[in-house]
Each structure stands twice: as C-alpha cells, then as structure tokens.
Design brief:
The structure is a homodimer of 115-residue chains. The first copy, chain A, is an alpha+beta fold and 115 residues long. Chain A has helices spanning 3-16, 19-31, 38-45, 49-61, 80-90; strands at residues 36-37, 65-70, 73-78. Chain A has a single domain, classed as Arc Repressor Mutant, subunit A. In chain A, helix 1 (3-16) crosses helix 5 and helix 2 (19-31) crosses helix 4. The radius of gyration of chain A is 15 Å and the shape is elongated. Chain A binds a DNA duplex (30 and 30 nucleotides) through residues 14, 18, 20, 37-39, 42, 47-58, 69, 71-74.
Chain lengths: 115, 115
DNA sequence: TTTATAATTCGATAATACTGGAAATATGGA
DNA sequence: TCCATATTTCCAGTATTATCGAATTATAAA
C-alpha cells in the first residue's frame, strides 16, 4: 500500500484547493524567487492577518510554500519543485506504463531556487 | 478580476484533494483510454456504491474524469487535458513573466484521447 | 412483463474546514 | 527598557464535506 504518498499528494492538493490559498500561491508564483512578506500578501489580497496566517500554514504544511524570517517580517515563497512532484505522482504509471511520459513541467522554472 | 478561472481551478483541485477521489483518479489514469466501469472501481477500491458515486460526481464536476454509458455500466475515464490546463494556470505568469516556461506536461500522454 | 444488475439520488449523521477578533509572541528601534 | 510593527495562536461560531444504508432510476435479459 502506498497510502503514504497518496496521503502526501492529498496534502499538496488540498493546500491549493481553496480560493484564498490558490490566490496566495499564484501571487507567490508570480513574485518568483524574491517571495513576499505575509503583510504584503494580506494587503494585496485584502484579508485579515489571522485568516491569512491560517491559510499560509496550510500551504506550508502542504509543502507548496516555504517561509524564512527576515527581521520582523516572514518571507513566503512558492515551491516549484512541489508542482513537479505532484504531477509526477498524478500521472504515475500512466496508461499502464505505455511510456507515454508526461509530468516534468516546472522544471525549467526557477530552477535551483531551493538548492 | 479573473475569479472565474480561479474558481474553476479550485474545482479541479478539490476534486482531487481527497484520499478516495485521488485513488479513483489514479486508477483511471493507469487504466488509460479504455477506462473502467463504476462497479470495477468500487470493487478494486473496496468502497460502497453510494460513496463511490458521490466521489465520482465530484471528479466529474471538476472535469478530471468523463463518463459514458455502455449498457448497464457507466465507463469512467481520466481527462488528461485537465491536468495540462491546471498546471498552466498554476504556473501562469510565473516569475513575473521571465519566460521560464513550464506547464505543458501530460501532453504526450494519451494524446487525442478526447478528440 | 418480471426479474436481475448497475449505478445514482436521498437523507440523516459525523467530521472537518473556514472565519476573524482578541490575546500572545517575536523582532527591531527610540 | 518601552513602544511599535509583523505575524501567529487561540477560540467560538458558522459552513462545508464525507459517509453509507435505503429507496430510486436505467438498462438488459429471461
């Protein structure tokens, strides 16, 4: 049983499966490697700090964003590798293994970001 | 405001963001173009018909599976294009448009499936 | 038509997730 | 030290989602 990986993928997916969180993630994707401090995100998406924090922790839990403290602020960044891994898992053993290879997008994007 | 597309993507994501539904989807990915009748899925994943039906309707609603009646059975198939569209949306305008192109995986896989 | 099979809808219950103000925690500057 | 800023945690109320047996609908075969 590969329930572990299945469970992991569900975490990634449900991290993104919410209006606010998807908006946050996409904002971070667009911000690129420099990321954005939580306050900026709250301002740009016009949401209360506590709600934002709730969603950020979900995204972090799902592994689709990373955080790093910088002074009083905490900088959030999208993790592009997570997208790769997700796609690979979703399309794993696709078409019963008739090597119809997919799933290595996002590779070029921000490569070496978290090296 | 592109809330429409954001909303659509949330539908796709939450369709997959559940243990059972993810398992169903992956089973269908592996089954390939021939798909599987609901009964087969229920048997292979050992779940009650009504629960399965509930989840299948979510997957259908999210556009990640299609259904087609064949006699008494209803055949379900994974929609690979949906994965493409999702990735494209997630990584849209990635890194502020520094053309770090991603997101066209799954293209080769089962191409022409729903043509 | 009657009977059997395949799947869905209904409905009540249980579980999980979302929201946002108020309080708590960190950090940096005066 | 004391104050301001940035963010998170706590909490409660509300809302959404999952579960599955029983009833229903659709199809096919006897």
């Amino acid at each position: 049983m590969e329930t572990i990986r299945n469970h992991t993928a569900v975490n990634v997916l449900s991290a993104l499966a919410q209006e606010h969180r998807l908006a946050i993630f996409r904002l971070l994707v667009q911000a690129g490697r420099s990321g954005l401090p939580a306050g900026q995100i709250a301002k740009q998406l016009d949401m209360p700090a506590s709600s934002l924090s709730f969603h950020l922790s979900h995204l972090k839990n799902g592994g689709v964003v990373s955080d790093e403290r910088d002074g009083r602020s905490i900088i959030y960044r999208a993790d592009f590798q997570a997208m790769n891994r997700l796609m690979a898992f979703l399309l794993e053993n696709c078409c019963a293994g008739d090597d119809c290879l997919p799933a290595d997008a996002a590779e070029t994007c921000m490569e070496g970001q978290d090296a």
